[in-house]
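re: ur question from yesterday

yeah so i grabbed the chain u mentioned. its 153 aa long if i counted rite. heres the sequnce exactly as i have it in my notes:
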Amino acid sequence: MYPVQLNLKGKHVVIIGGGKIAWRKFSKLKSEPCSIDVIAREFHEHFDTIQPTKHIRLIQADYQREHIAHADLIIIATNHPETNDQVAQDALPSQWVNHTGDRKQSDFYNTLDIEHNGLTISISSHGQDIQRTQHYAAKIKAWLDSTKEDMHE
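ran it thru and got these structure tokens back, copy pasting raw so excuse formatting
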């Protein structure tokens, strides 16, 4: 994998799913300068706090191929493997896909970012183990917070 940070300005992101994982992905994206559609039959209670805008739409519906037709980036996060696989099959080669249930069908994985004194430190398990990633990120953050920064060491 080639680590990058994406400039999503003017891009269209579609999240298929409305549960905890979809919320976690949405939470990181909602402040980006992109448009976001979240498609789900039901939404996790956290989505109740979101006011739709011209850039954020919550669409209560079953997935249809048309939902991803104009997406630049697609995040698949339902608890229905058949739906997840169908979305991955429907995606065009030019669309970037993150299939949270099957990393083999993903074009990218998210990183867990640690912000510290103007730096962003990213950690990833390549989509394999979010709990392990969170555990190590917490250790790194605690170490950074406990260490006196000396730029001249």
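noticed a couple things. The helical segments are 20-29, 81-90, 130-146. also Residues 130-146 form the longest helix (17 residues).
anyway ttyl
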